[in-house]
Amino acid sequence: MTTDLHVARFDELDARTAYWLWQLRVDVFVVEQRCPYPELDGRDIEAGTRHIWIAEADQPIAYLRVLAEPNGEARIGRVCVAAPARGGGLARQLMEAALERTGKQASVLDAQTHLSGWYERFGYVVTGPGFLDDGIPHLPMRRPATTST
């Protein structure tokens, strides 16, 4: 399988790619996980948002977004991999690409509870009590800013 990693701001996305990215997110979060929620939340079009995805033959098969939070932290979210492409390390590649772009900046995310250990491998720690997001248990997590040595 030949895949390509892509990074773009909203205004750099062509209509077809944007459609496929949103379709992948809806397929995973709304349909597969049975969470009817407003998937398009307005944050995709913010100037500080970066869309990161992996495509096979130009078709997105894995995705995440990095948001610029008002407090200066980055927020990683919407991490998803198409069901047929799971188990091949694509989510890890996405996280590595996201962390490369956030650099030394602190970042936060809301992890599905069963994935918190996976996010810990990237330096994230649980920062508060668990909560339900659309009926799915989540944990708030943070990766602190790093300094040069």
List the helices and strands and how they pair.
Blueprint: E1 3-8, H1 15-32, E2 50-56, E3 59-68, E4 74-81, H2 90-102, E5 107-112, H3 116-120, E6 125-126, E7 131-133, E8 136-143
Instruction: Compute the average pLDDT.
Output: 94
For the CA atoms, what is the radius of gyration?
A: 15 Å
Spatial shape: globular
Task: Tell me the number of structural domains.
Answer: 1
Named at the architecture level, the CATH assignment is 3-Layer(aba) Sandwich
> What summary fits the major beta sheet?
8 strands, mixed
Helix percent band = 10-25%
Class by alpha and beta content: alpha+beta
Give the DSSP E fraction (strand runs of 2 or more residues). 25-35%
Question: Based on the structure, what is the oligomeric state of the protein chains?
Answer: single chain
Sequence stretches where pLDDT stays below 50 over 5 or more residues: none
The CATH topology label is Aminopeptidase
Helix and strand string, N-terminal first?
EHEEEHEHEEE
Q: How many alpha or pi helices? A: 3
Tally the beta strands: 8
CATH class category label: Alpha Beta
For the termini, the CA-CA separation is: 39 Å
CATH H level, superfamily name: Gcn5-related N-acetyltransferase (GNAT)
